[in-house]
Amino acid sequence: MINFAVEMEVDNSKIKVCVGLSGGVDSSVAAYLLKQQGYDVFAMFMQNWHDADSTLHGDCEWEEDRFVAELVARKIGIPFYFVDLSAQYRQRVVDYMFDEYAKGRTPNPDVLCNREIKFDAFLEVAQKYGADYVATGHYCRKEPVLTEDGKQALDACGEPLFRILEGSDPNKDQTYFLCQLTQTQLRKAMFPIGDIVKPEVRRIAKEADLPSAEKKDSQGICFVGKVDLPTFLKQKLTSVEGDIVEVFDAYYASDSLYQWQQDTLTSLLKEGEQLERTVRYAPEEKVLTSDGKPLGDSPFSLDKLEAISDEALQKLSRPISYTIEFQTETYRSGKHHVKKTRYKDNHCGRIVGRHEGAQFYTIGQRKGLGIGGHEQPVFVIATDIEANRIYVGEGHNHKGLSRFCLCIRPDEIHWIRPDLRMSQGEIRRYRVRIRYRQPLQSATLLMRESGLYIIFDEPQRGMSPGQFAVWYDNDEMLGSGVI
After folding, report:
1. At 56, which CATH number?
2. pTM for this structure?
3. Which of 193, 362, 406, 431 could bond 106 through an S-S bridge, CB–CB 3.0 to 4.6 Å?
4. Is 70 inside a domain boundary?
């Protein structure tokens, strides 16, 4: 039997595509390829930030980017437009950032920029110019979801379903930043360079003599630029000095939650498996060892995980909180026996420095602490906004730096593929990442009434509230949620 599900040839010249041209090489090549493929292409540059004082360069980086973008559009031979979305960006991205940091959480502005600006506010303007699609220079792939007989799968409303796949360049995959897109947004999106590796993108740009061919990749906050984060946050968040407390190993021997989690995780293991509570580190290579392997069997018993209560899962996903009290004593010092005050030794920890506001720091942070006298690196393991304290630990293997389990509240769970949404009580095995460029980690997902719980096969370093956990089936990104 002949399969009539083959797509008919489409006249690309009748399809109008707006390229979000940033002035970088990736979006430039995206525009160039679409033009070569016969699409009716126009470029639009968006300004999302005005305050040059917050950037490290101290000048208006967006003005240079706009100039390069306009040169690229002229070279390709496509119309160029400018749109100011700074009001929407401040309201929907920057204000959210300030609010989250004030609560001691660590948001991801790039994820928000894609969800709220590029594929929402920007898309709305592009459609006013007649665009059928918006294209960006993201390294990811979009494909239709097909039924068993090769036809386009439809959602409950009869609209076509699409899926997002990792980019062909493993070093540049950017699906993480698109983890909050909806099917409505995905239907209007195009990613022309998703199946190309970065060196090839550079080669195409040079061959086409694009003005952005040698331009360095942008860094920093999406459309704000590279900033000193504490300085940026101090625009709205008050700087108040507080203590930096180093936590010693002895603390965990007396912490009831840590011991309960240790015992519970051990009881969930399959026979013959052993619990390794901290992240492995290869000092000779100066890198964390990571999963990054194909999804295999979990070291935890799926039957035991299925039987565990919601209350126990909530307790497993709870980060350790620290309550270390320091007592003072007076002593006399020097030739003149001057009376001074000092803290008494505490076997659980010590005060090792001062900071300018707990809200300016994030879990796993290493730089900017100003703490010396340690053989190994020192990392932030917890922040207490109410007490204005930062807790730190020495070494990659510090017990407070690693966790196995996280929870995503029901209202924070987002499915890119709504047709694959998990039902209550269901358990699935996926690979997950909790930050951009982290190798995918094997994990078990449990959907419960109280939320979605993710239990990793191996401990994870620096789980930060406010960041996004994103889960994948092979190379397809299925969903995400706020930790």
Report:
1. 3.40.50.620
2. 0.90
3. 362
4. yes
